[in-house]
Amino acid sequence: MASEATAEWSMGGDIQDLTREDYELFRRLVYAKSGINLGDGKMQLVRARLGKKIREGNFKSFRNYYRHVESDPSGESLCELLDAISTNTTHLFREIRHFNLLRTLVTQWVEDRAWRSRNSTLRLWSAACSSGEEPHSIAMVVHDVLSRHHGIDFKLLATDLSTRMLSRAKIGLYDIHRVGTVPAELRNKYFRKVVDDGQSMLQIIPELRKHITFSHFNLMTPTFPFKQGFHVVFCRNVMIYFDNPFRAELLQRLYDALVPGGVLFVGEGETLHLVPHAFETHPRAGAVVYRRPLKE
Ligand SMILES: C[S@@+](CC[C@H](N)C(=O)[O-])C[C@H]1O[C@@H](n2cnc3c(N)ncnc32)[C@H](O)[C@@H]1O
What we know:
The chain is α/β, with parallel strands linked by helices.
């Protein structure tokens, strides 16, 4: 298979190649605006991913394109640049252990009388939701549990930096071969067959989609605007792109966004032992689920 660089980028005759100085400018801009730390070694990635934009926009050089992004007051060009740089890989029920744990935790809460007397709505947040696979997986599990325990509703906020990914996520449309990781019972319950552009597809049913609000949100936002705390936050496979100082800041904001006793899921490869934080590890779940202590 052709590498990403060769597939996406062949230098047009009169386009000036990316220089080390250009790379530094993009690296600093991306870091300042998204927290994504490209480091020293991603020159080829930047060349490949931005090359397409440069050709499409008929820019003469990377520097030219950089200036265009910098001087666009609408912020739209910046948004597109960050879209091109960020990695959006995801799939339904990615790291399935998390969804089994989620099922256990939610079941414990809704079966606990004291918890029920304090809460009528479960609030969850998928904080880097990409094209929607993560929030759709969360929603299937939570809806399935709550359909057996009446009287508790749920609301799921799903946010990402990428507006391109969010527009896909909102539709909830999947190729049939992409739903293979969904447990069969949930697949039968939460997808319906639709024909899109003459092609047979599966779509998340409206009954599930109505619980999810998709919205653009940058995790770099210094003060999170949420009025009510979340019971569950998924912030998975995004901190990997950030450096430790920003991870520590973000963890504090996520901590503050949770209710006491609320839990944070991070990606399997993202244990937080190198970063200072106030969470405790969840006694049953080990190092992928962190909990804001009930009493501080
Ligand atoms: C690899 S995907 C992870 C998707 C999903 N959480 C999962 O684990 O499958 C990383 C996502 O983080 C988003 N992202 C990167 N920087 C971000 C930021 N500063 N604020 C919000 N989202 C960001 C990207 O747009 C991308 O969709």
